[in-house]
Amino acid sequence: MAGYDKKTRHERYIKNKERENAQSKAYREQHKEEIKAWRQKHRKENQEEIQKKQREWAEKNREHVREYMREYYVAHKAELRAKNKEYIKAHKEELREKQKEYRKKNAEHIKKKKKEWANRNREHVRKFRRDYIRQRYAEDPEFKDRVRARRKQSYKKFLSEERARRALSRAIRSGKVVRQPCEICGAEPAEAHHDDYNYPLEIRWLCSVCHAEWHRNNQPIRKEANDELAR
Q1: Euclidean distance between the first and final Cα of the chain, in Å?
Q2: Is the peptide bond before 189 cis (omega within 30 degrees of 0)?
Q3: Could you give the 3-state DSSP secondary structure of residue 83?
Q4: Buried b / exposed e along 158-177 (16+ C-beta atoms within 10 A)
Q5: Is the pTM of this model over 0.70?
Q6: Residue 182, exposed/middle/buried by CB under 10 A (0-12, 13-18, 19+)?
């Protein structure tokens, strides 16, 4: 009898629960807009507290959040990309201004990150540059002529640099100068760098990344500069 009572009590509980769920669902359907308005009002009034709790929960369940985000992205990839494109088109100028502001505020951080990435991916950077030039040569027949014209102008404008480079090339071929790794980071192969182009064989060896960084922040001494100082 005791077992029967327990069973009937459980059945009654299940039926009551189902009835309550049905009533709750009907109420929600009937007062849908009111509930929505109340939720929005509650979120506005308690925005900081809700965000704080969300952050705390996300910190505690970081792996779960990452997994959920990955699964959600995979399931809605096309939809998310389409929405992203629409948003970018609609807010193009606004996003551009935000990017400019961010770059100005974080110029040093961006430069540091770029250098770190380039150091980690030296071969990729070199390959990308080579492939880009080859592609331009293949796609644009006039590109080669423009490059040659710029080189001629550069040769006339920076005559002391060209003479120093040619003298150094002859010294390397003859064995007077031996190639060394980068003196800053130790990477190989390194490029010959002149602090003063008036002394062709007084050089330092720098990798392409360190070399570019030096020229971004410094100016080498040229013959024209020395002539001006002499005057």
Answers
A1: 119
A2: yes
A3: helix
A4: bebbeebeeebeebeeeeeb
A5: no
A6: buried
Q: For the chain, how big is the Rg over CA atoms in Å?
A: 34
- Dihedral angle at the C-alpha atoms of 108, 105, 125, 213, nearest 10 degrees? -30
Residue 88 carries which side chain, given as an amino acid letter?
A: I
Using an 8 Å Cβ cutoff, are 206 and 182 in contact?
A: yes
Q: Is 178 helix (H, G, I), strand (E, B) or coil?
A: coil
Question: Residue ranges per domain, the chain?
Answer: 158-230
Residues of the chain by 3-state class (helix, strand, coil), percent to 5: 80, 5, 20
Q: Indicate whether 107 pLDDT > 60.
A: yes
Distance, CA of 190 to CA of 186 (rounded, Å)? 9
Burial zone of 204 (CB within 10 Å; 0-12 exposed, 13-18 middle, 19+ buried): middle
Percent with pLDDT over 90 in the chain: 28
Please say whether the beta carbons of 168 and 192 come within 8 A: yes
Retrieve residue 60's tokens. Answer: 């505690």
Is-contact 195 202, C-beta < 8 A? Answer: yes
